[in-house]
Design goal:
Elements (H helix, E strand, L loop, with lengths): L2 E4 L10 H4 L7 E7 H5 L5 H20 L4 E7 L2 H11 L4 E5 L4 H14 L2 E5 L8 H9 L6 H12 L42 H13 L16 H14 L1 H7 L16 H6 L4 H14 L4 H25 L2 H4 L12 H4 L5 H13 L4 H14 L4 H11 L5 H12 L16 H7 L20 H17 L6 H7 L4 H15 L6
Parallel strand pairs: 1-2, 1-4, 2-3, 4-5
Helix pairs in contact: 3-8, 7-13, 9-12, 10-13, 12-13, 13-19, 16-17, 17-19, 18-19, 21-22, 21-23
């Protein structure tokens, strides 16, 4: 039986079980560049270029290993390209590693029915935790909480565990030690991530993207992302040797014109599957021992890989398709236009969105507590926000993007796996950055024309939802702080909030 293996753009692993399931002499591989995937959301040019360059490099590597690869350029859609390909060839079965997006999985299942060809979704061995294993774990839980999942994963995979079965250092989580702002005088010297100059393949992709998607957001003049496994491994090893030591302390810190800080910048390579989470965790553990790093910084990094990344994937497949339509607070405002341009007077927004446009990257606090926090407080329709994140970040694939945005940043699912909305006033941003120093708005003012919109909307959010929040131990303290605000000031806050919400495009 002749098989066709479809490899999607975020499945670029040479160790996938799907590759082991085909006969090199008989079966074939198909890879498709589909314009519909670039336009499904208004994708950042850097995101398009990263996927296409990595795909083209991977196809060449497969050919060098003796695989028969049909690489299809400029297709309208994956479905249309596969239909034409099946019409021209005599395949009896379509194989594909389980897609990381439910939409694509459903499209392929429907296509197999139309074509009358059997389809097999092969489990993705890239991850520590399979979809079925997560569902089994979740079925026993009244609440889905990262901390319990993370502890289970630590025990199961013997990561940072001592011989007695206890966590190294006597505690599971050192998060409280990893929330430092940069020093008052600034971050000082930061070792640069390892970047890669575009080769011929990447240069060709960049030119083609510029020509084909000229109206899309983004900038390709700084495109130096790893696009092969070899490059990704080098980038990983460079981070472990030169940057991991300071990651923990400053992982939440922000500073003007400091887009990468001490972060690993490995998420894109991980999500394309150029490197595996096991390789990253093992490398972090080796660096911990070799360079005598602080346990808190290494644990904080590993928690993001072994814990959060695996957790949100499980939640995605557990809760879809409902997760995509959840809107707990019934928010309906459109996304402000400056999310696409960076042209906001708010310094935190202009810097975070500006670097997103320029590089296709922002770190997790910029995403959660700046762009995400504002979107929640400004009552933006969750689906528009999720589409923006999926469009703008080079590391965005839906299984990781949607739970983070809808569940974590926006509380759109009503706390399915978070115990409270992650909201903060402008004072948090002032504490964790220097953005407020060069901003016309004042984070300490709760109302008035000079008041920070984040602060105004934060207090307005508390006023609007104080009855519900007062019953939640995690949010009751915020509501108690509201009791210190006079009735007159609360009215002024609401008036200021109404004004801001009516002019979101102009703040």
């Amino acid at each position: 039986m002749k098989k066709l293996l479809l490899i999607l753009g975020d499945q670029l692993s040479h160790e996938s079980d799907a590759l082991r399931a085909i006969d090199r002499d008989r079966d074939e591989i198909c890879m498709i560049e589909a314009s519909s995937e670039a336009r499904h959301v208004w994708s950042n040019k850097a995101r398009i270029a990263l996927f296409l360059s990595a795909m083209r490099h991977f196809a060449e590597e497969l050919r060098e290993r003796g695989f028969r690869v049909n690489y299809i350029y400029e297709a309208d859609s994956i479905a249309s390209a596969l239909t034409q390909h099946f019409e021209k060839n005599s395949y009896q079965q379509l194989l594909v590693t389980e897609p990381g997006e439910v939409r694509i999985r459903n499209d392929l299942r429907h296509l197999s029915e139309v074509l009358g060809v059997s389809i097999e979704f092969i489990p993705d061995n890239h991850f520590y935790c399979s979809i079925d294993d997560f569902k089994h774990w979740a079925a026993e839980k009244k609440e889905l909480r990262l901390e319990f999942f993370y502890r289970m994963m630590r025990k199961k995979h013997q990561v940072l565990m001592d011989p007695n079965g206890d966590p190294v250092g006597g505690q599971w989580n050192f998060d409280q030690d990893n929330r430092r702002p940069y020093p008052r005088q600034g971050p000082g010297f930061i070792d640069e991530p390892l970047w890669f100059e575009p080769d011929d393949i990447t240069s060709s992709v960049i030119k083609w993207v510029q020509k084909t998607y000229p109206d899309h957001p983004g900038n390709l003049s700084h495109f130096k992302w790893p696009v092969t496994r070899d490059q990704a491994l080098k980038a990983m090893n460079h981070f472990m040797e030169h940057r991991l030591g300071n990651f923990g302390y400053y992982q939440d810190a922000m500073w003007t014109d400091t887009p990468f800080g001490w972060h690993s910048i490995l998420s894109a390579a991980l999500n394309l599957k150029l490197i595996t989470p096991r390789e990253v965790v093992d490398a972090a553990l080796m660096s911990y021992q070799r360079n005598q790093l602080e346990l808190s910084t290494v644990e904080g990094f590993i928690r993001q890989i072994l814990g959060w990344r695996e957790f949100v994937r499980g939640v995605y497949f557990l809760d879809m398709p409902k997760l995509a339509t959840d809107n707990h607070f019934k928010h309906t405002n459109p996304l402000p236009q400056w999310y696409w341009t960076g042209q906001s007077r708010m310094k935190c927004m202009s810097d975070s969105v500006g670097q997103t446009i320029q590089y296709g990257y922002a770190h997790h606090i910029q995403r959660l507590m700046v762009t995400g926090n504002f979107a929640l407080l400004a009552e933006i329709l969750p689906q528009e926000v999720a589409q923006w994140y999926l469009a703008m970040y080079v590391d965005a694939v839906e299984w990781v993007e949607l739970p983070n945005v809808a569940g974590m940043a926006l509380f759109a699912n009503g706390g399915r796996f978070t115990s409270k909305p992650y909201v903060a006033s402008g004072m948090y941003i002032k504490r964790m950055s220097n953005y407020c120093q060069s901003c016309p708005y004042k984070p300490d003012l709760k109302h008035g024309g000079d008041a920070c919109p984040v602060t105004v909307l934060y207090w307005n959010f508390l006023i609007k939802h104080q009855e519900i929040f007062s019953k939640n131990p995690r949010t009751s303290l915020m509501v108690r702080n509201l009791s210190k605000v006079s009735a007159d000031d609360q009215l002024k806050i609401q008036d200021s909030a109404t004004r801001i919400l009516g002019m979101l495009d102009d703040i």
